[in-house]
What we know:
The chain is of the alpha/beta class. The protein has helices at about 5-20, 50-70, 85-95, 100-115, 130-145, 205-215, 220-230, 265-270, 270-275, 300-310, 345-350, 350-360, 375-395, 420-440, 445-465, 470, 475-500, 505-515, and strands at about 35-40, 45, 75-80, 120-125, 150-160, 165, 170-175, 180-185, 190-200, 220, 240, 240-245, 255, 255-260, 290-295, 320-325, 325-330, 330, 370. It is built from 18 helices and 19 strands. The protein folds into 2 domains: about 5-15 and about 35-325, Rossmann fold (3-Layer(aba) Sandwich); about 390-535, Isoleucyl-tRNA Synthetase, Domain 1. Strands 1, 2, 3, 4, 10, 15 and 16 form a 7-stranded parallel beta sheet that branches. Strands 6-5-9-11 form a 4-stranded antiparallel beta sheet. Bound molecules: 5'-O-[(L-methionyl)-sulphamoyl]adenosine (MSP). 5'-O-[(L-methionyl)-sulphamoyl]adenosine (MSP) binds near residues 43, 53, 269 and 332.
Amino acid sequence: xxxxxxxxxxxxxxxxxxxxxxxxxxxxxxxxxxxxxxxxxxxxxxxxxxxxxxxxxxxxxxxxxxxxxxxxxxxxxxxxxxxxxxxxxxxxxxxxxxxxxxxxxxxxxxxxxxxxxxxxxxxxxxxxxxxxxxxxxxxxxxxxxxxxxxxxxxxxxxxxxxxxxxxxxxxxxxxxxxxxxxxxxxxxxxxxxxxxxxxxxxxxxxxxxxxxxxxxxxxxxxxxxxxxxxxxxxxxxxxxxxxxxxxxxxxxxxxxxxxxxxxxxxxxxxxxxxxxxxxxxxxxxxxxxxxxxxxxxxxxxxxxxxxxxxxxxxxxxxxxxxxxxxxxxxxxxxxxxxxxxxxxxxxxxxxxxxxxxxxxxxxxxxxxxxxxxxxxxxxxxxxxxxxxxxxxxxxxxxxxxxxxxxxxxxxxxxxxxxxxxxxxxxxxxxxxxxxxxxxxxxxxxxxxxxxxxxxxxxxxxxxxxxxxxxxxxxxxxxxxxxxxxxxxxxxxxxxxxxxxxxxxxxxxxxxxxxxxxxxxxxxxxxxxxxxxxxxxxxxxxxxxxxxxxxxxxxxxxxxxx
Length: 561
Ligand code: MSP
């Protein structure tokens, strides 16, 4: 099945595997620390990207962008998972050479992620030479450490999930023709009995080390940590890590025995090492890694991956951030069920930032979410068009702000009747940055956006109740307070737009441009908000606003449900 190019790559690879490269000056083992590596899962190329895939990538992107906003060093990798029977079969079904097929679909993912502004710093394909090199090196390490042996694997195999399953991970079911079949209890995909001589990995020996690793509470949100703890209550069976090449030819051959192909999940997980420069640790050492993943692939990341790393004497992941699924009418969106939502169609209807906002705000790591266009429209109208767009209009409108300037805040101007409301607003906004940071740290982008939206509403209510347009018609004291209200509103909007950049980079830019905020004031590092309310100097007072931008977000038509 391999194309000529691929054969060449693999034979060259075998040569390299016989003479492994120098490991560099510093030993692996946790002490060497590079920048934080954040990863998305790598995506199967058996089908085009759908909304669930975009969500996985987006959740990683928002965290990566937030880290950058706070001045932290972060890298984000993504890519495509191109080997295995599933992809081999998908290529055969459309009469394409697997290599060409993979290139086409991989490019679709890359284009989709570019369209969605996923700010990856590396895009890895498992058919790349650098990856095959990392896989072969890693395999040899596992062999050297005595973790690989030859044995006979007998059990169920699920091609859709590319997973070996024990008897109790499967259940009986019926196919479309009502014939009895066995399926994976987790995914519902059909499994087949398999009996084959394979290379096996001594997973059973790593249970104590995995339990130690779990003590560091590396899995978030907590319910997923509990699930993994439960899995580890039982003994772990050893894991088959190769398939005979006459059955699975589309993959990386076992370096010492090319009649076997390395198990696609071992191959795929090593992508995280590939992007860290492995095996050449001088490129970028394998340091603390944060992997983002959907709950369907928890076992692979929470048991197999740390076990592989520990077996090779490498530090296990620092964090696994797990999210739940998008469903269509309550059923997980997946290509095989033909119930997927097309992200391109959504972008056309809602814009890129509209879709980003909805997925991040409405999706949740802890629970599955149903996707309906009605919910999208209602949410975007309420939070982007009305609340955020309304706030921008209010404080920048020429009728209210004919000079198009940031006014001066005057501490003495606060009337006693407005005191409590002002304190409530300041209390809320002053907490916001810390809250958003905490939510992002806990992998709760939805809660971070909820907190921002709630403050946006607070600012709108404050503006409405203080009614600066009336104050400007009054005496000197009223006018001074009117200016202060306008300053407070502009300053709160500057804060919200700054914090919204990771989620909706385009809309946030529109707001910051309109407010005339220079680039140096668009990060959180060293950026102060509401300084004038403390009697301190505020750069913005007296500055002119940027040019007009029209409506921030066009209201969408909402059908009756
Ligand atoms: N190739 C493996 C991952 C290997 S990582 C070393 C894989 N690929 S996948 O394309 O099937 O899934 C990639 C990501 O998309 C996973 O995090 C998965 O949870 C996510 N999603 C796929 N369908 C989804 C939904 N319906 N909803 C949310 N995310 C879902 O698994």
